Amino acid sequence: MPKLCHNVTEYGQCNMHYNKDELEKQSIKVISENDLWTFQQVIGFLPCASSTFYSYELEKSENIKEALTKSRTKEFAKAFKRMKENESATAQIATLKILGDQDTRDALNGRVEEKEIKEVKVVIERKPIRSRDDIDND
Question: What's the whole-model pTM score?
Answer without folding.
Answer: 0.57
